[in-house]
Amino acid sequence: MEIRSKQENFRLREWKLTDIDSLAKHINNVKIWNNVRDGLPYPYTMLDADKYIRMVQAQPYVQNFAIEVAGEAVGGVGIVPLTDVERLSAEVGYWLGEDYWGRGIMGEAVALLVDYVFRETGIIRLFASVYEYNPASMKVLEKVGFTRQAILRDAAIKNGRVIDMYYYDLVKREV
């Protein structure tokens, strides 16, 4: 599966085992790690990349896309669907290699993901949590149409510091 950007400067596509090198290269960055959950290893190794790609390839449908620029996977965008009574909701996550920041790629990538999820799956609600010190990520979500629903005070600990998390969501009927 492939989704081309309107500006034609990137595309979303499924992860491939040939992306191991570029995934490990671009995500192994403390500036990225500071803005994601601690479940993402840092330093990030080739073995971590191999495990991740094999995991997403085994999912029942495409939930995670590589962001490809000029033939190289330089970022990722995807969802984590919830289960049980929350099975119509999914958490959105995204990251982009530092060399590609400030180019408008992530805003369009998240918008393309939202369109795909609402069009191709039964999910009707997307949400994301952003650390208090990441206004660029908040701006990405707001640009796509997500609404800040809450500030979860002292909700996370990152790098030994207790921080607030900003909680955003987007419901299909609002799109």
TrEMBL record:
<dbReference type="InterPro" id="IPR016181">
    <property type="entry name" value="Acyl_CoA_acyltransferase"/>
</dbReference>
<protein>
    <submittedName>
        <fullName>RimJ/RimL family protein N-acetyltransferase</fullName>
    </submittedName>
</protein>
<dbReference type="InterPro" id="IPR000182">
    <property type="entry name" value="GNAT_dom"/>
</dbReference>
<dbReference type="Pfam" id="PF13302">
    <property type="entry name" value="Acetyltransf_3"/>
</dbReference>
<dbReference type="GO" id="GO:0016747">
    <property type="term" value="F:acyltransferase activity, transferring groups other than amino-acyl groups"/>
</dbReference>
<feature type="domain" description="N-acetyltransferase">
    <location>
        <begin position="18"/>
        <end position="173"/>
    </location>
</feature>
<keyword id="KW-0808">Transferase</keyword>
